[in-house]
Design goal:
The protein is an alpha/beta fold and 351 residues long. The chain is built from 9 helices and 11 strands. Helix 1 packs across helix 2.
Length: 351
């Protein structure tokens, strides 16, 4: 048994269901992935208690599912829209097996203390994916505790129209400082806020990932252009533009933000000029980034700054320089998904 989907249990977790669940855990010796799908706010504590009881009764040396390495938790929102402590993953979950990968997905909610105070479960996590609402305080606590973290995905999934201002980060505890705590271990970073400018204060005073040059172990970066470069960076030299990236990066995925009126034409033109400067700098620089071999450009699903012909011209920048870097592009599907989820959340918000 490679994976286990528990969605059939979420009608109600009765005492009998808990006992059946305990028996299934004990029989699933080869379980590798545990999917907790659409857990509601009432049954989640019951599930945690059940797992704690099972682990206590049947566990051997803290683990009775030795092949279990991945937990996927998908939470549904509370009826009142709040989320305090809602994404807490108790340490007892990790007592089920040798957990080193966790993915948590939640569509929307406030970003106040989503993850609670029990972060001991992060100590042995190597891969963490968060598709949910979060703030700098959350990410700082996570990165401070995840001492073995190699892969980090942070995707803000709140609909664009819902604005949640998290607490102002304390000095030295914004997202730049948080990610820097993982500089010695982090190899993969994905960070996306899909155009939510109001969130940039959580990143740092400039609203961009100033920490990137300090991530010397990072091999793959996937993020949005405005989270690396500000609009006035077009005046920087090629060396300065390249210097904003991790020095040992091999694969770079740059993503457009969705664009909306007013100022649509100006924004699109400014983005094209900035990208021209970035791509020319990267194509002609094999000293600062000696390992870079792949640039993948994700166009916005709404009012993209580049058409197909213009993207072909960008690729010729690398071809004409005989650069070892491969330049490819595609449409950003996450923006399409975010629009659908945002429309659904807006409907629910007004109902």
């Amino acid at each position: 048994m490679g994976a286990w989907d528990l969605r059939q249990f979420w009608g109600s977790l009765t005492g009998i269901t808990q006992r059946i669940l305990a028996i299934l855990f004990c029989l699933s010796i080869n379980l590798e992935l545990l999917l907790l799908h659409k857990v509601d706010h009432d049954n989640y504590p019951v599930l945690c208690d059940t797992i704690e009881n099972v682990a206590g009764q049947f566990g051997h040396n803290g683990s009775f599912l030795p092949k279990l390495s991945t937990i996927y938790l998908q939470k549904v929102r509370k009826p009142d829209g709040t989320a305090e402590g809602e994404l807490v993953l108790p340490s007892v979950f990790l007592e089920l097996g040798n957990i080193n990968q966790v993915q948590i997905w939640r569509i929307s909610g406030s970003n106040a203390n989503n993850f609670g105070n029990d972060l001991l479960w992060l100590a042995r996590i190597r891969e963490l994916k968060l598709f949910c609402s979060f703030c700098a305080n959350d990410i700082y606590g996570i990165c401070e505790s995840a001492i073995q973290l190699e892969s980090l995905t942070l995707v803000m999934t709140d609909p664009r129209f819902l604005i949640y201002y998290g607490p102002t980060p304390l000095p030295g505890e914004d997202i730049n400082y948080a990610i820097s705590l993982c500089a010695n271990t982090l190899k993969f970073l994905e960070f996306r806020i899909t155009g939510k400018r109001w969130f940039q204060d959580q990143i740092g005073s400039l609203g961009v990932l100033e920490c990137l040059p300090r991530l010397k172990q990072l091999e793959t970066l996937r993020t949005e252009i405005p989270l690396i470069y500000r609009s006035d960076d077009i005046h920087l030299s090629p060396v300065e533009l390249v210097g904003k990236l991790p020095p040992n990066i091999a694969s770079l995925e740059l993503i457009e933000w969705p664009t909306y009126p007013p100022g649509l034409d100006h924004f699109k033109s400014a983005t094209r000029h900035l990208c021209d400067s970035i791509f020319i700098a990267l194509a002609n620089n094999d000293v600062q980034l000696p390992n870079l071999r792949q640039i993948h450009f994700l166009c916005s699903a709404y009012n993209p700054c580049f058409d197909t012909e213009q993207l072909g011209e960008e690729r010729r920048i690398f071809d004409d320089c005989e650069s070892p870097i491969s330049f490819t592009w595609a449409i950003d599907l996450l923006q399409t998904q975010a629009w659908i989820l945002g429309h659904l959340a807006f409907t629910l918000h007004r109902s």
